[in-house]
Sequence to fold (144 residues):
Amino acid sequence: MPFEKGHAKIGGRQVFTRNKRTLGFLEVLEKHKFCAASALIECYDDARKVYENYSVIFKAICEARDQRGLIPVEDKADKYLKMAIECAKELAAYSYPRNKAIEQVKHNPLDGLTAEQKLDAVKQMVKILEMEVGNGQGPIQPTP
Fold:
């Protein structure tokens, strides 16, 4: 029997019902008492603390390496700042819904006018442009 318009959905999985694979994954997370948002918050806090204290940590590392005669390491403070930013971005997905893209529509002032009205409007625009370009000295003279 082919599908006919107007019939309600009968049977099958309900809309927004999770499949077995997703349910199994959620059970494992629940069994281990894992919360992604809490883990991201912990990562964010740790990365931010390291970034804020990095000058002290970096100085201590350089002194220890200098005492041993080793080459100083490079400053990687920005790595921890980037980690904190990435965690914050991920957390934002939990807090704020994503907005759908909105198509920008530009309004054309000539829409809805007749051909004669459009022609009059264009003539007025040309006169205004001639006045602006000619600094009020009349119409622009064509160049040969």
About this structure: The CA atoms of residues 47 and 94 lie 19 Å apart. The chain has two domains: 20-95, 110-144. The chain has five helices and no strands. The chain has a mean pLDDT of 78.
